[in-house]
């Protein structure tokens, strides 16, 4: 049925396989990173060296996947929203999508900036050195950026978690109250895809 709709309207009826794959892999990584970050808050600094390196490694991989996802999203058309959604609902949906993409970029980027401002090395999974963001010596000497970045990174992570919760609630609303096909557009196909 979805293929017929696509042929008749010229609009994709669901996200393509790459978009679906990136959505769910990044979602799992983001949930893992939030959980790991919360856990690290309760581990003494003296015992958290491995956890910090692991958090940085997964964060960099997530950031790279997000860059791929944004490029893919900009070059591949998304399926249209249901026609019966109001203009206000469409604006909210588009705004939420934009915010989620921004947070997916800014949270790992601020983590990278944070460790760069502290001149902390990043060694991806203990194997490959990742470059720090080059900062002016005056910024490094003042130490101000190093002081504020942990709070900025944490605040962004917490607000990102809030927007993720709203995103999940919206998905549940579409699935169980509106009972439309919005959620099906991003779910992997099962069996024959029917």
TrEMBL record:
Q: Which cofactor does it need?
A: heme b
- The coiled-coil segments of this chain are none
Write down the membrane topology.
Answer: Multi-pass membrane protein
Domain Cytochrome b561 bacterial/Ni-hydrogenase span(s) in chain numbering: 14-188
Q: Tell me if Transmembrane is a UniProt keyword of this record.
A: yes
**Could you tell me where this protein is found in the cell?**
Cell membrane
User: Known Pfam families for this protein?
Assistant: Ni_hydr_CYTB
Which residue ranges does UniProt annotate as crossing the membrane? 21-40, 52-72, 105-132, 152-173
Look up keyword Iron and say if it applies: yes
Q: Which InterPro entries match?
A: Cyt_b561_bac/Ni-Hgenase (IPR011577), Cytochrome_b561_oxidase (IPR052168), Di-haem_cyt_TM (IPR016174)
User: What keywords is this UniProt entry annotated with?
Assistant: Cell membrane, Electron transport, Heme, Iron, Membrane, Metal-binding, Transmembrane, Transmembrane helix, Transport
List, alphabetically, the PANTHER family matched: CYTOCHROME B561 (PTHR30529), CYTOCHROME B561 HOMOLOG 2 (PTHR30529:SF1)
The family classification in the record reads: Belongs to the cytochrome b561 family.
What is the name listed in the Swiss-Prot or TrEMBL entry for this protein? Cytochrome b
Report the source organism: Bombella dulcis
Organism lineage: Bacteria, Pseudomonadati, Pseudomonadota, Alphaproteobacteria, Acetobacterales
